[in-house]
Design a protein that fits this description.
Nardilysin convertase; 24 strands; metal ion binding; single chain; Metalloenz_LuxS/M16; globular
């Protein structure tokens, strides 16, 4: 464009011959959205079910509408190094082959959507980077993205994410502070902004008919943002709260410590996050006007020629070009050259970097991370040398370093590579790291583990890279995945494309992040030469380091020590020692698919899954894919047993069993994993959940492998000890997070017969026996009810083979009595209850408040739709009320929630018929939007199976129910549950600190992490603000007096 903005426009290319779609088709498709989540199991292995997220659309006080136990809360996903590493690895596995590149038109056609969307990627200053996710979207739809490059802000630290929030608080043309969010919510859309080291991404999506107005509203933030002083002051408090929430995260703390090792003057040396001190108090002391600095920041860095814009819609390209030119031409161009950081290379070539750092983590964990800082590798995106090396380093099959370390019981997991985030790869350096999750024994031998990584990977890789077989296998696997990839969520697609415009040549915008274009051994060798012991940084994370670490990182308070790397081990690494004979190249992969033919249906096609097998031992639901037409399949099974919930010890034995099974499968199933066949084992509340997906050609082989290992389950005492010790850490890490502790307490109160995480942790700490585990596994496998779902490119005969294989291999008897897969929920009294407990981490200042409103009698979709409609109306004003206009302490939150609901009651009464109708229409359009890929449909159907509800046409029923709901219905429903007879439960988890009346705050570290002390709940009395509320002083005693509601199920 004339102002320098680079824009890419994407139209619905259903009419490639140039003829526009019919008016009927256009009218039908002018709105829509994606409501359902995707099939999100990126990593293979075992998972502990958390007891479900209960914020479902309809909840008869019933916390048990679980979606098969994949909720992340109790898996400590935000903080779990293991899951972070798996996530990074999965990101790197996405397709790679120049031979399979689709044409531009073919590829874009895959991203057609009924919603219009827009994305902006901005390239911000290093000095102000705060990687947060400022999201307020109701649902994910296609999107429009945009990109800006900006340089340093020297005196005011951490301005970028702070600025991102402030710039969206009204514009000259649309001054209402939260007007844009309200506009999007009203029309079924959402927006988001996220920052990284050198880019910031903005996006929104909305129904097509409102797209042009939304574009104009959105563009004004980059043209004339108001940036009101009062809003800036309030937003400082919000940023400070986010900083406090980030402090107990080991990932954030390790990153901050790592950055502190950079050369003075390099942006990585600065504070990434921002808090009240750096954004308010210190600027005031130094006579720095924050408002003026933000204005200067906007003028310097929000220049059109730094930005890239991607717009996707079902409008014609001519229409999109007209709109974009008209609206975005007003973005100013400051005429200044783009900021460059090319002079800031080798930021970690310092004596401080090449050391061993012992660190005390928040969680119970042992991990060793070996890191090298290489010259920037972004320019080699067509070769991707770090991706190639990481494939070999991170291999987990026979002959791999992880296999070797597991046999010695030194390691549980290993990841090698570059996460491709701005922190790990940017224009000044690229990181290559090897991260090993250690056992207790592995912690004692961490130097030997370090040397093993060289033996298995780096030394041998010099030989490997000269051979083409490995490279060609990687290419083949990733080519298959790329060629047959399912349609990407348009939001993700447009976001990636907009960022790619910042990074790659024009011809590689679509494929630069996915394909291996060139095999150049010399570039790989150059990267390998950088991985020497003299250039390595070692970080050893362990609670056992407590007492040895007398240094403290400035911003997060991380306790650490610094020492020279032991010369003996450094010299050994550098020497030409003999490689262990157990280490060898990966063998040829038998799981790589070669048959991609679509199967011919052998039974009548159906819109929803049908039960094709039913016996006393189990049943099978099946649906042949006739929509997406890809050679892939999804297979899910639930092995149900009433044995699990009989005692806390049984739950622990079950968790141990599933984790050992996953451990046993790690090596033999890894080849399937790298061949894009994914699996996950979930220790559910009522049974073992097995999920596999991928190319249908070889998927039965993987499923049979899992069942074989289940049938022939065995373990050694050493494995038993290793897994139970790790399980102790897992339980502990769950309990020290306020949000998961609050959930555990709430479900303990609500769910009849529930065993809490504290019950399980205390029982585990008392000890388990090998004999008890063997007896439990035998009993579990002896009596089961197996329920399965098979969808995708399978015939009904092939689908039946999955269930038949389970029955024949396991040889189990049917259950004597049916086993419901839901907890029953207690009937709360008609009053406001409070359960207030102290957090179990003495170093955590954060508090958590949950207010639960119990609604009974939910048996109809019409009733459930009131919940969802109410949530849509309430979400934006609630966010605005509690976060933007109110800076709250933990004592006031509960009252403020009630205050908001009282205000909202008046607001919902005053809704105009037009506003109500618009919201209903937006929700209907969301539910009418077709699934973007097969996984979404499978997720929805599996949820019906695993909860034994079987309402496969739930969406259609809800759409019909929504069409009949009136404004009076919604008001009456809300008032009925706001009466004096309402049932309310508040759960408060109170953090430590002076603000909570504690003495000097304990240093932020994992208290009791090494002492073995068993935590117990400390219940607190209500505050003066809540003296009129009934306080629960003994959870089990109180709940034993309550009645129990029937099992919850939608009847129609």
């Amino acid at each position: 464009m004339q102002n320098g903005l680079c824009a890419l426009l994407i139209s619905d290319l259903n009419y490639l011959d140039g003829a526009p779609a019919s008016s009927e088709e256009e009218e039908e498709d002018n709105d829509g959205g994606s409501e359902e989540g995707s099939d999100e199991y990126d990593d293979s292995g075992a998972e502990i079910e958390d007891g479900r997220e209960d914020d479902d659309e309809c909840d008869e006080g019933d916390e048990s509408e679980d979606s098969d136990g994949d909720n992340e809360d109790f898996n400590d996903s935000d903080d779990s190094e293991l899951e972070e590493l798996a996530e990074k690895e999965e990101t790197r596995k996405r397709g790679c082959s120049e031979k399979q590149v689709l044409s531009f038109l073919e590829f874009l056609t895959r991203c057609v959507s009924k919603y219009s969307s827009c994305l902006v990627v901005a390239r911000p200053a290093w000095e102000g980077t705060a990687r947060t996710n400022c999201s307020s979207s109701w649902a994910d739809h296609p999107s429009c993205w945009y990109s800006v490059t900006s340089s340093a802000c020297e005196l005011l630290m951490s301005p970028w994410c702070f600025f991102v929030a402030v710039v969206f608080m009204g514009s000259l043309k649309y001054p209402d502070e939260n007007g844009f969010d309200a506009f999007l919510k009203k029309h079924g859309g959402g927006d988001n902004a996220s920052t990284d080291c050198e880019r910031t991404v903005f996006q929104f999506d909305v129904q097509r008919k409102y797209f042009k107005e939304a574009l104009d509203r959105w563009a004004q933030f980059f043209i004339h943002p108001l940036m009101i002083r009062d809003a800036i002051d309030r937003e400082v408090e919000a940023v400070d709260s986010e900083y406090q929430l980030a402090r107990p995260s080991d990932a954030n703390r390790k990153e901050m410590l790592f950055g502190s090792l950079a050369r003075p003057g390099h942006p990585m040396k600065k504070f990434f996050w921002g808090n009240a001190d750096t954004l308010k108090h210190e600027p005031k002391l130094n006579n720095i006007d924050t408002y003026t600095r933000l204005r200067e920041f906007w003028q310097r860095h929000y220049s059109a020629h730094y930005m890239t814009l991607v717009v996707q819609s079902k409008e014609t390209l001519d229409t999109l070009e007209k709109w974009v030119t008209e609206i975005f031409s007003e973005i100013p161009n400051n005429g200044l050259p783009k900021p460059s950081f090319g002079h800031l290379t080798q930021p970690f070539d310092t004596p401080e970097f090449h050391k061993l750092y012992r660190v005390v983590p928040i969680r119970k964990v042992h991990s060793l991370t070996i890191t090298w800082a290489l010259p920037p590798q972004e320019q080699y995106y067509r070769v991707k040398p770090l991706h190639y090396i990481s494939w070999l380093v991170g291999h987990e099959g026979k002959g791999s370093v992880l296999s070797f370390l597991r046999k010695k019981f030194w390691a549980l997991a290993l990841y090698g590579g570059n996460g491709e985030t701005g922190f790990e790869q940017n224009s000044t350096y690229s990181i290559f790291s090897i991260s090993v999750t250690l056992t207790d024994e592995g912690y004692k031998h961490f130097y030997e583990v370090w040397c093993c990584t060289k033996r298995a990977c780096l030394k041998s890789t010099f030989i490997i890279f000269l051979l083409c077989r490995i490279w060609e296998e990687i290419q083949k696997i990733e080519a298959n995945e790329f060629h047959y990839q399912e349609q990407t969520d348009p939001v993700d697609y447009v976001e990636n494309l907009c960022e790619n415009m910042q990074l790659f040549q024009k011809e590689d915008f679509l494929t630069g992040d996915q394909l291996l274009f060139e095999y150049k051994p010399e570039i790989i060798a150059d990267a390998l030469n950088q991985l020497s012991p003299q250039r390595a940084n070692l970080v050893l994370l362990s609670a056992a380091n407590e007492g040895q670490c007398h240094l403290k990182e400035k911003w997060f308070g991380t306790q650490y020590s610094m020492e020279d790397i032991d010369r003996y081990w450094s010299d050994l690494w550098d020497s030409d020692f003999e490689l262990n004979q157990d280490l060898h190249l990966p063998e040829e992969n038998k799981y790589i698919a070669t048959d991609f033919a679509l199967k011919v249906a052998d039974c009548p096609e159906t819109e929803y899954p049908v039960k094709i097998l039913s016996t006393q031992q189990g049943c099978l639901w099946y649906r042949k894919d006739d929509k997406f037409k890809i050679p892939k399949g999804y297979v899910r099974f639930h092995l149900i047993s009433p044995l699990i919930q009989q005692s806390a010890e049984n739950i622990i034995l079950f968790d141990t069993f599933v984790n050992i099974l996953s451990h046993n499968l790690g090596e033999p199933a890894y080849e399937a994993d790298v061949a894009q066949l994914e699996y996950k084992l979930v220790a559910g509340e009522y049974g073992l959940i097995i999920r596999v997906k991928g190319f249908n050609h070889k998927l039965p082989l993987l499923f049979q492998l899992i069942i074989d290992y289940l049938s022939d389950f065995s373990f050694t005492p050493a494995v038993f000890e290793m897994i139970t010790e790790q399980l102790k850490k897992t339980y502990y890490n769950i309990l020290i997070k306020p949000e998961t502790l609050a959930k555990d307490v709430r479900l303990l109160i609500l769910e009849h017969g529930r065993w809490s995480m504290i019950d399980k942790y205390q029982t585990l700490m008392k000890g388990l026996s090998i004999e008890a585990l063997s007896a439990f596994v035998s009993a579990f496998k002896s009596q089961l009810f197996v329920e399965g779902l098979v969808q995708g490119n399978f015939t009904s005969r092939e689908a039946k083979d999955f269930l038949n294989y389970v029955v024949q291999k396991l040889q189990f008897a049917p259950l004597a009595h049916p086993c419901p897969v839901q907890f029953r929920v207690v009937d709360l009294p008609n009053t406001h209850l409070l359960c207030k407990v102290k957090t179990l981490n003495k170093g955590d200042a954060n508090s958590e408040v949950t207010v639960y409103y119990q609604v009974t009698g939910c048996r109809h979709c019409h009733f459930c739709c009131n919940f969802v409609l109410f949530q849509m109306h309430m979400e934006e004003p609630c966010f605005d009320f509690l976060r933007t206009k109110q800076t709250l302490g933990s004592e006031l939150v509960d009252r403020k929630i009630e205050e908001f609901l009282s205000c909202f009651e008046e607001k919902i009464k005053d809704l105009t018929e037009e506003a109500f109708s618009t919201q209903v229409t937006a929700l209907i359009k969301l539910k009418e939007c077709e699934d973007s890929h097969l996984g979404e449909e499978v997720d929805r159907n599996w949820n019906e199976v695993v909860t034994q509800q079987y309402l496969f046409d739930r969406l259609a029923r809800e759409i019909e129910a929504l069409k009949s709901i009136t404004q009076a219905d919604l008001v009456n429903w809300f008032q009925a549950h706001r009466s004096n007879q309402r049932k309310v439960l508040s759960v408060h988890v109170i953090g430590y600190g002076k603000h909570e009346g504690d003495s000097e705050m304990t240093a932020v570290s994992g208290q009791n992490s090494s002492s073995g002390e068993i935590p117990h709940l400390v219940l607190l009395p209500p505050s003066s603000l809540m003296s009129d509320i009934t306080s629960i002083k003994d959870i089990k005693a109180y709940t034993s007096t309550l009645n129990v509601l029937p099992y919850h199920k939608i009847l129609k």
